[in-house]
């Protein structure tokens, strides 16, 4: 029987090293495929490597069919299944945990247009971080940090490669951190770096405003047409 392979599902499974795959292949050739391939709607959600080996050597395998309401539910099962494995690396554990947090937070709040990895005020009924922390034996802070990591890796897959190369999670994420931006006349501009004084909130806000204004003056004035210059002047006066 030929099963479907969904690349989004497959990407949730940590890949085996060449040595690990060779050992699994040797075990299956010797003992047969002892563990069934798990599917949903004839698509593999667990057992991609076993399936590949069995197809390669024309070996029989068993199938277990699962039922889920939607793709998110299927993927949440996959991440939960991975989190129960002893040989999961610390980084892969955090990624699976973070994906569960972000996914479950999204479902709990019924929104798809928000950043669910940030710290949010949870009601007693929707304290996702607390529930996942209890399930997986970690702290709520660990769950929320894992959510931020999973979100960053989803936007920049190379972060995981950087971590695998020996960099800390903090270092790898900082390399791909998006710079702060501002929007003027429909265009997005990066803000220059500036030090915020500690004297007061008002002075800090003014420092940010002055720095933004300076950057905009230098980078947009020469390229602006008359209308844009007029709009900019009006904007500048309103922010003084």
Can you characterise this structure?
The chain is mainly α. The chain has 3 domains: about 60 residues, no CATH class; about 100 residues, no CATH class; about 60 residues, no CATH class. The chain is built from 11 helices and 5 strands. The strands form 2 sheets. Strands 2-1-3 form a 3-stranded mixed β-sheet. A two-stranded antiparallel ribbon has the order 4-5. Helix 2 packs across helix 3, helix 5 crosses helix 7 and helix 6 packs across helix 7. The N and C termini lie far apart (about 70 Å). About 5% of the residues have low confidence.
Nearest-angstrom radius of gyration?
Answer: 25 Å
| Measured distance between first and last alpha carbons | 71 Å
Instruction: Sketch the topology as an H/E string, one letter per element.
Output: HHEEHEHHHHHHEEHH
Beta-strand residue percentage: 5-15%
Structural class based on helices, strands and sheet pairing = mainly alpha
């Amino acid at each position: 029987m030929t099963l479907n392979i969904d690349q989004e599902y497959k990407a949730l499974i940590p890949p085996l090293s060449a040595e690990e795959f060779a050992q699994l292949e040797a075990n299956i050739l010797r003992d047969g495929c002892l563990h069934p391939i798990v599917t949903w709607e004839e698509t593999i959600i667990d057992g991609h490597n076993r399936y590949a080996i069995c197809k390669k050597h024309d070996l029989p395998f068993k199938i277990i069919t699962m039922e889920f309401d939607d793709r998110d539910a299927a993927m949440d099962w996959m991440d939960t299944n991975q989190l129960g494995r002893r040989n999961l690396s610390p980084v892969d554990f955090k990624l699976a945990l973070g994906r569960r947090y972000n996914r479950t937070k999204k479902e709990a709040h019924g929104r798809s247009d928000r950043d669910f990895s940030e710290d949010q005020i949870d009601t007693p009924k929707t304290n996702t971080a607390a529930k996942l922390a209890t399930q997986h034996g970690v702290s709520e802070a660990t769950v929320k940090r894992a959510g931020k990591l999973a979100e960053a890796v989803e936007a920049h897959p190379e972060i995981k490669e950087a971590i695998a190369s020996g960099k800390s999670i903090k270092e790898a994420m900082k390399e791909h951190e998006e710079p702060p931006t501002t929007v003027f006349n429909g265009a997005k501009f990066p803000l220059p770096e500036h030090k915020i004084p500690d004297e007061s909130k008002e002075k800090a806000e003014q420092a940010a405003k002055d720095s933004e204004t300076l950057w905009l003056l230098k980078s947009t004035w020469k390229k602006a047409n008359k209308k844009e210059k007029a709009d900019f002047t009006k904007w500048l006066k309103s922010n003084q």
